[in-house]
Specification:
It is built from 4 helices and 9 strands; from the N terminus they run βααβααβββββββ. The protein is of the alpha+beta class. It has a single domain, classed as q2cbj1_9rhob like domain (Jelly Rolls). Strands 1, 2, 3, 4, 5, 6, 7, 8 and 9 form a 9-stranded antiparallel beta sheet that branches. The chain is globular, with a radius of gyration of 19 Å. The structure holds fe (ii) ion.
Length: about 220
């Protein structure tokens, strides 16, 4: 009889949620219309764009960081959907801690801390960065334009571990330096906020790319 005891501890899991909002085709035009009128009201965009020393982005329009506070029912519903998806990812990632809670304690509240939209102009780019003061961040693709190839405006994530020997199969899981997700209208990607990410230059072609991004926290209700 084999009496060996075996535990494989999978520490610090790195979850990336990948969702699709089936209501997107219904809400897309209204969202774009709202963003158009938003830009008319605030043509200069958020303070980061006006900061000459900030070189983290190029050739894009970016709203203020309180998009979730706008009085627009479609946006409110969308942020509700985003919060629900974030809770899904958070529950799976924190399952070990959740299993220690009583049934009464398993009640959560999700808060949108910041949210904004970005419109990529010709050559628009966001350099690698991470987000602070929250646990989860996300991108939601509102309009992607015609060219959705990997090299055109895609979101990339940078491996958070040091490089390692790639000669043996044992470190195969660390092989990728970056992971690229292609843009798709209605797609929602959710990742831990500490993870470095950015977006490839977007070649505008006919339509500009428009995304919503947000930072969220998840807490126990009591
Ligand atoms: Fe970001």
């Amino acid at each position: 009889m084999n009496s060996d005891k075996k535990n494989i501890h999978n520490l610090w899991p790195l979850s990336i949620g990948d969702f699709y909002n089936y209501e997107h085709p219904i809400i897309k035009d209204d969202l774009l219309e709202f963003f158009k009128s938003y830009e008319k009201k605030l043509p200069e965009g958020n303070s980061q764009l006006r900061d000459e020393d900030h070189v983290g982005n190029y050739n894009l329009y970016q709203s203020n960081y309180d998009l979730h506070n706008e009085s627009n029912d479609i946006l409110k519903k969308l942020f509700h959907y985003i919060a629900k998806c974030v809770l899904d990812v958070s529950k799976i990632t924190n399952s070990k801690s959740i299993n220690k809670l009583s049934e009464d304690q398993k009640k959560f509240k999700v808060n949108v801390k910041e949210s904004w939209f970005i419109r990529y102009k010709e050559g628009g780019i966001v350099y690698p960065h991470h987000h602070d003061g929250c646990s989860w961040s996300c991108v939601y693709y509102v309009q992607v334009g015609q060219n959705t190839s990997k090299k055109n405006g895609s979101t990339y994530f940078i491996r958070p571990y040091n490089s390692t020997s790639k000669n043996d199969f044992g470190s195969k899981y660390l092989e990728e330096d970056t992971h690229i997700f292609t843009a798709k209208e209605g797609r929602l990607l959710i990742w831990p906020s500490f993870l470095y990410h950015g977006s490839q230059p977007y070649a505008g072609e006919e339509k500009e790319r428009v995304i919503i991004s947000a930072n969220l926290t998840v807490d126990l209700r009591d």
